[in-house]
Design brief:
Order of helices and strands: EHEEHEHHEHEHHHHHH
Shape: globular
Helix content: 40-55%
Strand content: 5-15%
Distance between the termini: 9 Å
Length: 239
């Protein structure tokens, strides 16, 4: 079994503890990863990354943006003697983000590279411990990946989505967040779930992810999810 330190954005992507000290309630990320390997997760609360002691470790590292997150996670991994770290981040969350596929890919690479810079900076600075760190970055957000395999909905709810159907290019789906009829991933997924009398929640996201076919998702999210799958091989080859 592979031990992985994991941190994400919020409850719907990587879950949350029901109460402090209680078992972690998983989101969509963990079951997706487990389809690639037998993994035990050490889940890190995002707010714990603000710990002053951990923040001091960033001094002189010259990392920025989400690289700070991956750098701090690497320090936590060292303290817990965990070699493998996955840092989940949504590439696009802003209302003003361009719908252009080219711009979306540029933003994806920007976030991906920031995270890798944090991992690399830690490994360069640390003399006694090295992590294998992997960015997990949807081009848009977790909802984009959850719109990537219609067979998951058939397994969960008994039929494939039809009103609306799933988009052909889910990782490039984009629109106005405040318009429920737009192609903003959260809005689109809300409409998909409505045909099953379901609403977006950590539990529903987890169930869909449990039933996703990884090969289908690699094909529909052929940039961001495919990249994660290729990077994850670094862990599998190291074990």
């Amino acid at each position: 079994m592979i031990e992985v330190l994991l941190c994400g954005e919020g409850p719907t992507d990587y879950g949350t503890p029901k109460l402090p000290g209680e078992p972690w309630l998983e989101g969509a990320v963990q079951p997706i990863i487990r389809k690639m390997a037998v993994v035990n997760f050490e889940n890190v609360r995002k707010d714990s990354l603000k710990d002053r002691r951990l923040q001091r470790s960033i001094k002189d590292s010259k990392v920025k943006g989400h690289g700070i997150k991956s750098f701090v996670l690497s320090n936590i991994a060292r303290e817990k003697s965990i070699k493998y770290v996955i840092c989940y981040v949504d590439a696009d969350r802003e209302h003003s983000t361009s719908k252009s596929e080219n711009d979306a890919q540029k933003r994806f690479l920007e976030i991906y590279n920031q995270i890798m810079e944090g991992f690399n900076a830690f490994n360069s600075k640390s003399k006694s411990y090295e992590v294998i760190g992997i960015p997990m970055v949807p081009i848009r957000m977790i909802e984009s990946w959850l719109l990537g395999d219609e067979s998951a909905y058939e397994k969960c709810f008994g039929k494939k989505p039809s009103n609306p159907k799933l988009p052909k290019k889910p990782e490039f789906l984009w629109g106005k967040e405040d318009d429920p009829n737009s192609d903003f991933p959260k809005c689109y997924l809300d409409r998909v779930l409505k045909q099953y009398n379901e609403v977006s929640s950590r539990k529903v996201f987890n169930e869909i992810a449990e039933n996703i076919d990884i090969e289908n998702l690699r094909n529909t999210c052929y940039i961001s999810f495919f990249k994660f799958c290729e990077d994850f091989k670094n862990i599998k080859h190291d074990v």
